[in-house]
Amino acid sequence: MKPTRFRVRVWGEFACFSRPEMKVERFSYPVITPSAARGILDAIYCKPVKFRWQVLRVELLPPPRYIALRRNEVKERAPSERTILQWTTGDVQPQPILADADADITGSDAKGRTQRQTMALKDVHYRIHAEIRPWEGFENELPALEAQFQRRARRGQAFYQPYLGCREFPANFALCEEDEQEPQPFPLDMNVGWMLYDVFDLSRRGDANAPPFISLFEARIVAGVMDIPEFDDPAVRKPPRAPATQEVLDL
């Protein structure tokens, strides 16, 4: 059963798809990454046990434009879901993140806030091409899964607010219909170089405790179009795979 190729337009005032080599200051790729595009589609409709999204193409409708932003950010990382659950059950004493604190109060320079520079994109607008890929055993449910996605996308429904790289940059979205007159991509040719493909192993059904799995591909924009290889394509560089956990195998 051949999957339907959906086209979804996404746009927003700001976006930042951070390059992983930039450790402190954020510097955005000139175009949305496959991982960020998949995240937007997951926000609209996802059932991780039954299927995953495969992003196939991204079209740039306006050219990329950068804007420099300086923001106050806390130095600490947000706690994990497991830690927050331990706080709520009383197993662990909550530890607040202090924004206005210095070493005299906290005893460490790793706490408090600092100013960081972000080279973000502004006024972005993309058209994402993607397909639903059912996991083994759910192939017969493909028409129902596609129909549910279409209903949600047409109504503007989402499980949570989609965002463009950073949660403070919300994304708007609309499903492209067959009879709709669509704008043409901006005629841009660019060799983007190595780009983040995804942070999870898309060949396996993951869970909340799935370890990171960083993959890369060599991105090129031709006439405003960035074609994205399949995850299993040799063009996608991947690290060695760890054995699947028993929880994943039992799904």
Structure in words:
- There is one protein chain.
- The protein is of the alpha+beta class and 251 residues long.
- The protein has helices at residues 34-44, 81-89, 103-106, 142-155, 246-249; strands spanning 6-15, 26-27, 51-60, 66-74, 113-134, 163-164, 166-170, 172-175, 190-198, 215-221, 225-227.
- The strands form 3 sheets. Strands 1, 2, 3, 4, 5, 8 and 11 form a 7-stranded mixed sheet that branches.
- Strand 6 and strand 7 (166-170) form a beta hairpin.
Question: What key attributes describe this structure?
Answer:
251 residues; disordered C terminus; seven-stranded mixed sheet; two-stranded antiparallel ribbon
Outline the secondary-structure elements.
Layout: E1 6-15, E2 26-27, H1 34-44, E3 51-60, E4 66-74, H2 81-89, H3 103-106, E5 113-134, H4 142-155, E6 163-164, E7 166-170, E8 172-175, E9 190-198, E10 215-221, E11 225-227, H5 246-249
Parallel strand pairs: 2-5
Antiparallel strand pairs: 1-5, 1-8, 3-5, 3-11, 4-5, 6-7, 9-10
Number of helices: 5
First-to-last CA distance: 23 Å
DSSP, total strands: 11
Mean pLDDT: 87
Name the helix and strand elements from N-terminus to C-terminus, one letter apiece. Answer: EEHEEHHEHEEEEEEH
* Low-confidence sequence ranges: 246-251
Structural category is alpha+beta
Give the percentage of residues in beta strands. 25-35%
Largest beta-sheet details: 7 strands, mixed
Task: State the share of residues found in helices, binned by percent.
Answer: 10-25%
Shape: globular
Rg calc: 20 Å
